[in-house]
Amino acid sequence: MDLKSKRKVKEFQEEEMPSLKDSIDDAAGFEVDLDIQWESLIDERVNEELWFEGWTKVYFLPTISAFEAICSDKLGREALEAELESVVFKNVAGMTGEINYSDGALTVDKEPCTNMDKVDKRTESIVPLLEGSL
């Protein structure tokens, strides 16, 4: 990751992450361990001005919405807290992307600037995946 990209990541971490992390934790009802593989999220094929929007819409918002749906009652909150160990955001799978849950880790492996506005579709993938595993 070059210096320019590092600066963008740092800017996001300082300006956007605190509220997004708080929203994830609030939705889950506990402090969620995030493992963000920043270097893989850098998409040099698109304007860097889209990175923040992509990271927010592809990774954070679907996860927040899914946790809100799952944790809408006490049973869901307890199940998520008992089973979820971490959330991983990365871009390794490329165009196909994948969302999976294994060994206590929810992994959202998607391209950060592709189909950004399909937040609901990603949420709809996460909810049944987690509900079927908790």
Notes on the protein architecture:
This protein has 134 residues and is of the alpha/beta class. It is 54% helix and 13% strand. The chain is built from 6 helices and 4 strands. A 4-stranded mixed sheet has the order 1-2-4-3. A hairpin with a 2-residue loop joins β3 and β4. α2 runs parallel beside α4 and α4 packs parallel to α6. The longest helix has 20 residues. The mean pLDDT is 95.
Distinctive features:
134 residues; alpha/beta; 4-stranded mixed sheet; 6 helices; globular
Protein topology:
Blueprint (H helix, E strand, L loop, with lengths): L2 H13 L1 H12 L5 E3 L1 H4 L9 H20 L3 H10 L2 E5 L7 E5 L2 E5 L9 H13 L3
Parallel strand pairs: 1-2, 2-4
Antiparallel strand pairs: 3-4
Helix pairs in contact: 2-4, 4-6
Order of helices and strands: HHEHHHEEEH
What is the percentage of strand-forming residues? 5-15%
Radius of gyration: 14 Å
Biggest beta-sheet profile: 4 strands, mixed
User: In percent, how helical is the residue content?
Assistant: 40-55%
Mean of residue pLDDT values: 95
List the total number of helices. Answer: 6
